[in-house]
User: Fold this.
Amino acid sequence: MPKRIFYGLSVLLLSAVQPVLAQQFEAPGSRLLATGGASTIEGSGGGGIVPWATLSSYADEGEWGATVQMTEVQVDDFSLSVQGASFNWNNRVEVSYARQQFDLETIGGELEQSIWGVKARLSGDLVYGVMPQVSAGIQHKSNQTFALPQAVGATDDSSMDYYVSAAKAWLAGPFSRTWVANVTLRNTEANQLGLLGFGGDKEDSREWVGEASVAVFLDRYWAVGVEYRQKPDLLSFAKEDDWKDIFVAYFPSKHVSVVGAYADLGSIAGLESQTGWYLSVQASF
Amino acid sequence: MKIWVSAALVLLGSMMSGAVQAQSSELYQQLGERSGIETIVEEMLLGVADDERIAHYFADVDILRLHKLISEQVCNVSGGPCEYTGDSMAVSHNNLGINNADFNALVEHLIAAMEQENVPVAAQNELLALLAPMHQDIVE
Ligand code: HEM
Assistant:
């Protein structure tokens, strides 16, 4: 993990040119700073754990954009590494890919999955007009280490998540700060994102879960916020809890963003109250 | 183009200095009143002139007049003692073919100008929130 973070930080240092200059020159796309958001652990553009209605990168109408990301999460008994990339066409369609490695540090072993995502902006705009930006997406997940998930009751090694998201920014909200809110409704049967497979012995059915994020920009470059993500609970061997985090996001330029968070992932695979740190670095082109 | 715009605006600025200040809103004051607003709009237009994404829209435009009108408008919407004497946004941007990316490009230069002039973030946001609704009349 330290090696990956080191790599991520060097990408950051190389890209983090002086903010105002970076805004004016060689901007990767025309959307306003920070409206590209960050990358989620499932690859889609969004917050850290919730996919947002915003599309990744800064591509606007008539433009295309791309991002690459590296994310590390370290909680008490587990760590998660994510590498991902995304492509945005016309700020209309986002295609994303992410690989996850989940290290069972205390239990022993590693779980892996890959996720392809497609998200389309259906209507509205994050910043302009009164209507929220509404997008719909799918995430196709396949678990590459199904032996353990199967042993604990999962029924499938691959599955789809479907979601609809709505997001809106208030340019001058409370305290004359810019606020962004996103709500997402997801239909899923994934256990712990899919790292513990799909479907379960306790319940083998799809569920609707709600997810939400709120962030406030302290200035043009720094935002703080919270996220909440409901989770299904389909396996009888261990309870699955909702996830939440508090984050700080830094957008020094349109080329790079960094998100640090404190995450509470609840009980995972029988090990209670998993809390810890989250660090994500994204580069935009 | 940039140098030309610069010279023209300096000239204009010197002709217009000494305008009378009336009592006015906090936002207007935080933008630096009339002279602060003129500087911000000037810097914004310099940025626009240098931006290959949108500079072409302004190729045949009387920049001095545009500077005067946008300054008036910003002064007016921010609660300053100015009357806006130009056309409506819908009329003046009609048929220009401005898209969302163009609009954001101009907003970016406005933000950069306000950062440059150390306008507090709260005031920046309030001005942006006052201008954002014009998006629907400007973008096609
Ligand atoms: C909130 C954003 C904007 C504001 C407040 C604004 C304001 C103005 C004002 C006050 C005028 C003068 C109106 C008149 O002639 O009576 C004007 C004209 C013009 N604007 Fe904008 N504008 C905005 C966005 C844009 C954008 C995004 C573009 C293109 C990228 C643009 C291009 C032009 C052009 C080319 C003219 C001159 C039209 C002509 O004289 O024929 N404007 N604008």
